[in-house]
Amino acid sequence: MTDAPNLPGYAHVYSGKVRDLYAPLDDAGNPRDDQVLLVASDRISAFDYVLSTPIPDKGAVLTQLSLWWFEQMADLVPNHVISTDVPEAVAGRAVLVERLDMVPLEAIARAYLTGGGLAEYRETGSVCGVALPAGLEDASKLDEPIFTPTSKAELGEHDEPMTYDEAVDLIGAERAEEIRDLTVRILQRGNEIASERGILIADTKVEFGVRADGTLVLADELLTPDSSRFWPADDWQPGRAQNSFDKQFVRDWLTSDASGWGDKASGEEPPALPADVVEATRAKYVEAYENLTGRIFA
Q: Per the database record, which ranges form the SAICAR synthetase/ADE2 N-terminal domain (predicted)?
């Protein structure tokens, strides 16, 4: 499942859906316990499956875009990055970061109603316990962004929606309030910046860790096509599925007749992606990076 490379001077300790984690080795050859080398692979996941077909340059796009967003949020919250001086084999798609005590939930904020939030709203009139007005439809803009956390499932398992009260029970009232407020503010700041560049950020997932002194720190990735839904602002139209700059393109192909996959809940592994879907997905990731940062991806 993993293509984690062998890196001299580092011990491979874990591989998730997309990222490979390594511990730097000290002079005695022992893994350090204060730093992690975080490597973004070109793997792509959908519907809780890691697909067999990688997306070229995806890891580099995620890493470089996250670094750019960390700079935009530096006055709001510290981040985990120590250095981008990494082994040549993973240059551009890896960062050396602090080892943190990770918060055991996925912090999600939504500015528009879509995806799993829309499905829950249609059933209950609310999302993660947050009551919403009647009459909303796919891609409706919410009056204010809402905080809709989920559990942090093990690889291959499903994240489950949580209410804010459940988050409080899990991590405590003070920490839950801090994470809620920061996650919403990050999405707001992200949309302030992205809207000037023709992109709407419908929702985003943020991960936090805690330093030994109790400081809350941004970790993992930030406002990327993997962690967020990006829509072209000039094409936004509530009441239908939106065109996107993210992996929704892959999800849509997998659930189409063209894939032949059938029921995504069947337990059957998804098929390999065809070349045209791979290239179109890569192009969407690169376009999102270039539109947001104003830089040419190379």
A: 13-265
